[in-house]
Amino acid sequence: ICHHPVISTIQIGFSEECKQDIARYLTDTFNATPYPGDGTNPWFTTSDISDLVEASCGQFLYASTLVRLLDEPHFDPRDVFEMARRHGSSLPTPDLNELYKAILKRAQDTIRNEAQKSGPDHETGLRFLTDSLAILVFLAGNVYFFTVPKSFPVMESLLGLESGQLTKKLGKMHSVLRIVPGESVQVHHRSFLEFLQNRERSGEYYISYSSALRRILILMGRAGVRYSIFQ
Predict the structure, then answer these.
(1) Which tens digit of pLDDT belongs to each residue from 183-207?
(2) Which of 23, 43, 78, 151 has the fewest CB atoms found within 10 Å of its own CB?
(3) How crowded is the C-beta side of 44, counted as CA atoms within 13 Å?
């Protein structure tokens, strides 16, 4: 508390109770997450949980975003701890910017690695990722399209994908996106959209609304669709 006759400040969200709540949330989630292998040995320790609690600084958003990484295919659960240690910032707040950058970089690296094996060329994969994010920026920033009931088929049409392909292609972004196959694609938290549209915060991942709009028009032209897809 700041002792001032008019102004006082308080530290929000980093009480012992909050720490315990986040620790319980992480522990329960990790206990329910099977680890590849024989599953007989625990894949996390109390110290690991404490590190994540400290990195989150009392913000459930930071903790929940890390946890959502566990649902991504081919993701080693132990990488969660490494990401938190590498990209977590000092107190009093966790650096969501660095976490979002780490998630996007990981998605790009995965695309490049898959391309080296048997997938499409990595430039195509990277363009798909950028286009997907541009569509979300456009939909969120336009009052007429913000409430599109079924954004999933809209994205499939604009990206020229066959039915069902979008879920698999966006699997690398599960930690920051909420995907309901056939229905909708939304961000896990609006802070991710704010991050994308702020050049200082997102750096190379920056997507302005105007650039998203230009990309939408190009995609619509290529797909041969009209505005009726948003209805």
Answers:
(1) 889 898 889 999 999 999 999 999 9
(2) 78
(3) 25
What is the DSSP code (8-state) at residue 162? P
Gap between the Cα atoms of 17 and 15, Å rounded:
5
Q: How far apart are CA 200 and CA 105, in angstroms?
A: 17
* pTM for the full predicted model: 0.72
CA–CA separation, 68 vs 66, rounded Å?
5
C-alpha distances (whole Å) from 25 to each of 31, 50, 143, 146 are 10, 12, 36, 32
| β-strand partners of 112 | none
Side-chain half-sphere of 55: how many Cα atoms within 13 Å? 26
Please answer whether residues 51 and 81 qualify as being in contact, where contact means their C-beta atoms are separated by less than 8 angstroms. yes
- CB contact at 8 A, 13 and 58: yes
Residue 123 has, within 13 A of its CA and on its CB side, a CA count of: 0
Model confidence at 137: pLDDT above 70? yes
How far lies 58's CA from each of 23, 77, 207, in Å?
10, 21, 29
Annotate 188-199 with b (16+ C-beta within 10 A) or e (fewer): bbebbbebbbee
